[in-house]
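User: Last request for today: this protein with 9WO, please.
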Amino acid sequence: MKRFDVVTLFPEMFSALTESGVTGRGGDRGIYDLVCWNPREFANDPRRTVDDRPYGGGAGMILMADPLAKAIDAGEKRQKGSGVRTSKTVYLSPQGRVLTQRLVEELSSLDGLVLLSGRYEGVDDRVIESRVDHEISIGDYVLSGGELAAMVLLDSIIRLLPGVVNHTDSVVDESHSSGTLEYPQYTRPEVFEGRRVPDVLLSGHHAQIKQWRSVQAQARTRLRRPDLLKNNKSDS
Ligand code: 9WO
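Assistant: Here's the final one, the structure of the complex with 9WO:
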């Protein structure tokens, strides 16, 4: 069983992940579990303060180190207590390493993860220094908090876990693992608003279908994402 601990001021957001679709079913089947830790519950003052103004001035508020560190420590303790041997603590932020399918695969091999979701204008950097192993971005844009990014990361990991998706070849045979975008797909009816399904797909010639799909995938990738193609100098 994979163990996920999430530090967040908005634990209710994670029901979108844990209660719907394949990620919901994976939790029900005991393939993973997820526990949220709210820094507000680790704040010591009667007002349960978790944020304060930035040293040096500037707009907005920063999440304070102490309640965050205590919430992270509770998550890390829960990981150890449930027998997790390999766990990393990840902060989701636009300053992180950009997520790829390769990184998803690496993270999915760990026994557990502790995820830190920030809010407001960010978190006290000393928490990142003292507690965070990896800072990860899901893309070059800014959200109102790290929760949606944490859910994107969790979804991408959970769907790879054995028993979550029907592991025929749907998970191995897909975009980004193969290095190209996917070919176009169709289902009934044969004609929709005057647009016909390509004849080759109705032909029953499996070798020709395979060839057509490969050509389509290559053409799409060349047009839309040439950066993904092999022999590209930016490819590692
Ligand atoms: C907000 C802001 C407002 C005024 C001036 C500067 C500011 N910086 C930020 C900001 O970066 N807020 C972040 C919100 C703090 C950390 C959590 N938040 C977040 C995470 N937004 N976007 C992400 C994110 C995470 C992973 N991948 C892409 C985006």
